[in-house]
Amino acid sequence: MATRPVEIGPAGLHTARAIEHLRLVRSLTQHQLAARCTALGRPMSNTALSRTERAHRRCDVDDLVAIATALGVPPMALLLPLPSVSSNDRRGC
Questions:
Q1: What sequence ranges are listed for the domain HTH cro/C1-type (predicted)?
Q2: Taking the domains of the chain in order of start, what are their residue ranges?
Q3: What's the CATH code, domain 10-78?
Q4: Which residue from 43, 44, 18, 40 is spatially nearest to 30, judged by alpha carbons?
């Protein structure tokens, strides 16, 4: 019997948006951020990062720590609500 994939919940959706937001604020492409994660010892393709940002792939704790480190923020920054930003800085969030 085939199992259904576990759906991504509200915290996972928020984390996906936070990753994309911080990546854009830092003017990084998905390829650049994925390369940073790989350089930190957590191999990641830009496809995997894209799927994570679109909430088509779950972000496990090891990915979360590597992405946060690559973005220069503590992992908690990807889990907590985004700070208020001006409408010019939202870029799709």
A1: 19-79
A2: 10-78
A3: 1.10.260.40
A4: 44
